[in-house]
Amino acid sequence: MSPALLEYERSGGVAALRDRLVVEQDARASVTRKGRPREIELDAALLRRIVDGLDKGRFLDLRADYTAEGADLMTYSIVYRGHTVRAMDTAVPWSLQPVLHILNDILDR
User: Fold this and answer.
1) pLDDT at residue 65 in the model
2) Per the domain annotation, does 13 fall within a domain?
């Protein structure tokens, strides 16, 4: 089995969430939300938007950690092409925000 194309996790906040999305190379994905796993398939256009957003946003050039001060902040972690970036609310790099929006939409469906 080849490594996943992308792994995404969001955690924290007032509700102490821990949601996870793993996207495979063939667009199959597993979503775990509120402790409940399910399998989905992303359409090609959506997968392309995610990959383009990461590549155009120069994901591989981002630092590993973007921390912030404050209570009940969400933490986001993305692993893509062997590089991991963790960012907290209010410290998310602008280039990563459009991709986070897409990934959160997938988790929230």
Assistant:
1) 97
2) yes
Domains of the chain: total: 1
**CA geometry: angle at 53 spanning 9 and 64, to 5°?**
50
Supply the range of the domain harboring residue 58: 6-108
Which DSSP helix (H) or strand (E) runs through 47?
A: helix 44-56
Q: Residue with structure tokens 């933490």?
A: 75
pLDDT at 82 over 90: yes
Q: What is the CATH number of the domain that holds 86?
A: 3.30.1560.10
Report, as an integer, the average pLDDT of 2-14.
89
What is the Cα–Cα distance from 103 to 19, expressed in whole angstroms?
Answer: 11
| pLDDT of res. 85 | 98
- Of 4, 9, 95, 87, the C-alpha closest to 55 is 95
